[in-house]
Structures are given as structure tokens and as C-alpha cells.
What we know:
The protein is α+β, with helices and mostly antiparallel strands.
Amino acid sequence: MAIEIIKENCTGCGACVEVCPVEAITLVDGIATVNEEDCLECGACEAECPSDAIKLL
């Protein structure tokens, strides 16, 4: 699997950053960015995102 950030949906709220258990998500210029090397693909960020900007593929 992989994580996709739908940039046009991301509001930069940081909810995904807060919930990521391995700190694999950061905000870059107000948009969530995933470090795929660190990501566990656990889905916590997708479940927490209020704007449906994160999708597990």
C-alpha cells in the first residue's frame, strides 16, 4: 500500500501530524507530507483527517 495526500483537500490543520504514531507526517508550506520510509500505513491519519485529504492506496 501507499499513502496519497490530496493536496487540494488538505487544509493544513495538522490532525494527521498529531495522530501519526511514528511522526512520519509533517506540514510543508501548510500541506501534509508523508515520509513513506517511516510510514507504517496504519491508517490513523486517514481516519483522523477532517477534509478527506489522505487516502491509503
